[in-house]
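Researcher: I'd like a candidate sequence for this fold, 458 residues long. If you have to choose between options at a position, lean toward the conservative one.
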């Protein structure tokens, strides 16, 4: 597939990395020659320096025979015009745009994106994706990462194992025997900075970060088995009242079980806007690093604190201060993946990576065939792909134990009809089943080949 990616920033580069690694014909366009050079030097892609919305620049990028364009520059307007030019001048079939401004995303103006108006097939909103990720983290406070699959019936949980974990030094095969009715599968383990798909003989050790697929009804039991306590989030403090913070606060206000929320926002204009938009939430104008202001927000009694400003270091320091003031659970918004290893030493319980959430959202719309969801893990180290099994797939009719999966691939969950089951070696995969597969990045192309997903894409 020939793809043009407009914008060579963090998101554009990551998408280019995924697609070029799967042998797609990728061209990256950016008006910053240094970013274009970085992409062409480190990835198997072509690069064009210039403004993505200019027809001659898109022409040089090969738009006349491109099948898809992804507009992910830093400007909403450039992204929108790029899609319009791609449609009107070059007839590109599939157009994806990243839009940040809430005005463009308002539901009452959604008619704007029809093919005869502003022809954008898929609109991605980073703020909405990050807000959803933040709420997801709050729903499973003992996990450092969490994502929903199988229409909410299966969850992927990231759990850090400490010395109190009851199943340390136990092989995964023994775990299956001990908890035979538990619908949970350990699909990934990060040990000493390296992520791998474990085998049945592998043991779990203190310090491991485990990725576990579990049925939604078995989440409490899974958490207990891995030494984590579930707690209600009744008092929440948000540091940052921008678009993300406002969306999170508004969602918490709508919940049936009342959550007492307080927002701290440094910018007076943003604080006033948030105060006007929120009904039951207290908004404080000031610095989230100010211990006096944190005390006024009741940080010592808070069940959780989310630091979701647009500055990584502010978010990390706010979390550290909140911990020092007595808050049990803190979440930081972190754009720079090189800062993630500092989370543990600083005592930060969980983090949200906006780039990973946006990349996952875009990949969901790029993947061929009957793909229903894609989740990018870590710094693009692995993906979890949920897809319907087609009749043409080599998986259809096979037992899991008979399928020649690469070493970095594990089946996490399988849905047959309305029932989500824990997959075992003797489980037979049938046409129409929905399967969730954990795959290290280098093994994703092989997973797509096994699913034969490219047949019914266009």
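Model: Candidate sequence:
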């Amino acid at each position: 597939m020939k793809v043009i990616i407009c914008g060579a920033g963090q998101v554009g580069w990551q998408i280019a990395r995924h697609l070029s690694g799967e042998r797609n014909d990728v061209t990256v366009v950016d008006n910053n020659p240094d970013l274009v050079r970085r992409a062409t030097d480190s990835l198997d892609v072509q690069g064009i320096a210039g403004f993505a919305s200019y027809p001659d620049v898109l022409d040089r990028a090969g738009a006349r025979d491109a099948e898809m364009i992804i507009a992910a520059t830093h400007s909403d307007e450039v992204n929108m015009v790029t899609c319009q030019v791609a449609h009107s001048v070059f007839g590109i079939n599939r157009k994806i745009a990243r839009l940040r401004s809430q005005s463009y995303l308002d539901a009452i103006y959604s008619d704007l994106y029809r093919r005869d108006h502003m022809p954008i097939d898929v609109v991605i909103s980073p703020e909405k994706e990050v807000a959803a990720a933040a709420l997801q983290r709050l729903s499973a406070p003992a996990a450092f990462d969490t994502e929903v699959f199988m229409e909410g019936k299966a969850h992927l949980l990231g759990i850090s194992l400490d010395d109190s974990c009851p199943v340390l030094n136990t092989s995964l095969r023994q775990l299956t025997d001990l908890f035979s009715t538990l619908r949970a599968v350990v699909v990934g383990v990060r040990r000493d900075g390296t992520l791998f798909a474990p085998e049945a003989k592998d043991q779990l050790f203190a310090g491991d970060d485990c990725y576990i697929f579990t049925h939604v009804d078995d989440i409490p039991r899974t958490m207990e088995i891995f030494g984590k306590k579930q707690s209600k989030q009744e008092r929440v403090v948000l540091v940052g009242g921008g678009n993300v913070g406002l969306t999170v606060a508004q969602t918490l206000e709508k919940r049936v079980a009342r959550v007492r929320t307080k927002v701290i926002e440094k910018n007076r204009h943003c604080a006033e806007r948030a105060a006007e938009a929120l009904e039951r939430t207290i908004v404080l104008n000031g610095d989230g690093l100010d211990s006096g202001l944190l005390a006024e927000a009741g940080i010592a009694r808070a069940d959780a604190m989310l630091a979701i400003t647009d500055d990584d270091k502010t978010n990390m320091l706010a979390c550290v201060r909140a911990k020092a003031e007595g808050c049990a659970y803190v979440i930081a918004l972190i754009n720079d993946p090189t800062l993630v290893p500092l989370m543990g030493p600083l005592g930060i319980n969980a983090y949200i990576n906006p780039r990973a959430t946006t990349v996952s959202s875009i990949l969901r719309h790029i993947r061929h065939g009957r793909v229903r969801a894609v989740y990018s893990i870590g710094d693009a180290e692995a993906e979890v792909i949920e897809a319907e099994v087609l009749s043409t797939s080599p998986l259809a009719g096979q037992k899991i134990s008979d399928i020649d999966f690469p070493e970095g691939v594990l089946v996490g969950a399988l849905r047959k009809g309305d029932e989500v089951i824990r997959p075992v070696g003797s489980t037979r995969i049938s046409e129409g089943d929905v399967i969730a597969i954990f795959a290290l990045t280098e093994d994703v192309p092989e997973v797509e080949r096994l699913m034969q997903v490219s047949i019914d894409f266009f």
